[in-house]
Amino acid sequence: MKSVASLALVAATVPLVRAAGFNLLQNWQGSDFFNNWSYYGNYDNLTNGDAVFVTQAVAEAQPQLTFINGAGNAIVRVDNASTVVYPNKRNTVRLQSVESYGLGSLWVMDAVHLPYGCSVWPAFWSQAAKWPEGEIDTLENVNLALTNQMALHTEDGCTVPSSALMTGTLTDDDCGTDATKTQGCTVTDANQDSYGAAFAAAGGGVYATLLADTGVYIWFFSRANVPSDLSVSNPNSSPNPDGWGEPSGYYPSSTCPTSTFFEDQFIILDITLCGDFAGALDVYNQTCGPIPTEAPTNYCYTTNVIGNGSNYDAAYFEVQYIRVWSNVTTANTTTGSNSTGGGSGSSSGSGGTSGKSSAIPIFTKSAALAALLGIVGAVALLA
Ligand SMILES: *[C@@H]1O[C@H](CO)[C@@H](O)[C@H](O)[C@H]1NC(C)=O
Ligand SMILES: *[C@@H]1O[C@H](CO)[C@@H](O)[C@H](O)[C@H]1NC(C)=O
Ligand SMILES: *[C@@H]1O[C@H](CO)[C@@H](O)[C@H](O)[C@H]1NC(C)=O
Ligand SMILES: *[C@@H]1O[C@H](CO)[C@@H](O)[C@H](O)[C@H]1NC(C)=O
Ligand SMILES: *[C@@H]1O[C@H](CO)[C@@H](O)[C@H](O)[C@H]1NC(C)=O
Ligand SMILES: *[C@@H]1O[C@H](CO)[C@@H](O)[C@H](O)[C@H]1NC(C)=O
Ligand SMILES: *[C@@H]1O[C@H](CO)[C@@H](O)[C@H](O)[C@H]1NC(C)=O
Ligand SMILES: *[C@@H]1O[C@H](CO)[C@@H](O)[C@H](O)[C@H]1NC(C)=O
Questions:
Q1: Quick check: 5 pLDDT over 50?
Q2: What is the C-alpha to C-alpha distance for residues 383 and 378, in angstroms, rounded to an integer?
Q3: Cα-based angle 106, 3, 103 (whole degrees, multiple of 5)
Q4: Is 294 a catalytic residue?
Q5: Which of 13, 23, 31, 362 is the most buried (most CB within 10 A)?
Q6: Which ligand is closest to the CA of 52, given by its number?
């Protein structure tokens, strides 16, 4: 008993995760970056943004919204070259992974620039085929916010204990999505370099999300603190989250069992404009105010989206890589989903009828150790 107790104490300091045996399933990097994504190809009918998520053909034509730059990095941007006249929307991009990833998967983005500016609402996030069977917002905020805000959205019953060990600040502990709830369980990153102009000024950084049976873990590392096992040049290094320290955001399975609340996740990178979050006047005014008393409800749109687009010069992701590792060796493909997107977004539960392929998990040689770590982690969470 004594040894179990002391192991539990260690686990309580640094949450143990099933880190052993990660296999690289997808490396979006360099000239391969724009493969294995679906471009949404429709206006933003998910969050009421004043944006058109263009098709791949439009994104790759002038003015290019997705391309590989001279440094070999992927650019995903808002159109800052076109004049938009009232009442039209402005072109931007929403990418969703073709494959999905379940418990035991780790996805990581290394970026040197994130989109920001008044009306700009970027996100690097994931969701199940059917909403709200689990949504993880790894990176998200709006307008000229200073730090990242993480969140989960789930069926009702998933919560976050105030005791959850994380460096971020828990600002809402209820992840459910009943009629009175829309924002999910939010955590504000403590690091001022996690978003906006400061992110780029610090050389960018890395966002990592681990979906494990012990919980959902999100780490942010500013450039100077990126762990050596997440290097840009070595996709074949084996990441070890147990060495990464306390996560920025942590949602333990003790009050939100991941196996109950999270179906396989599709990874999404998108930028919308105004809409339910960035365009809400009481949100907009926090960093882009003051708002004149006579202002129309579409003030965010009329002030930013229409016009020549010069206020979107900073509204782009510049990404060195997005990688997915898992403790199994095959990703899941959906069958019968529409090429425009699969996911339903956060305003509707009509995510379609995508099914799983009969991917057979191949157990790694570290499976026995991984299982042991999982048991120890579970004991720690109950302690
Ligand atoms: C796309 O996904 C498939 C299936 O996982 C994989 O074999 C292939 O290497 C991926 N393509 C690129 C360019 O990453
Ligand atoms: C959004 O538009 C697409 C394409 O027309 C459609 O398939 C999808 O059902 C729409 N989603 C919502 C939530 O209206
Ligand atoms: C694919 O789906 C199966 C069954 O749901 C799951 O066990 C497996 O972990 C998934 N694969 C990945 C890479 O998430
Ligand atoms: C992978 O990790 C998940 C979640 O932590 C766990 O449920 C599953 O048993 C693991 N699979 C293998 C092959 O280790
Ligand atoms: C923003 O608007 C809300 C609602 O009108 C108001 O309560 C708040 O004080 C305003 N905030 C700022 C910073 O102007
Ligand atoms: C774009 O519009 C802004 C605001 O109206 C103006 O200040 C700027 O000079 C314009 N830029 C160009 C290149 O026309
Ligand atoms: C758009 O912004 C980029 C910087 O992100 C800048 O290099 C480019 O000149 C801008 N395009 C126009 C047409 O102003
Ligand atoms: C694809 O989308 C169309 C239009 O929204 C819908 O009628 C159709 O059922 C969808 N197909 C599948 C396989 O989801």
A1: no
A2: 9
A3: 15
A4: no
A5: 23
A6: 2
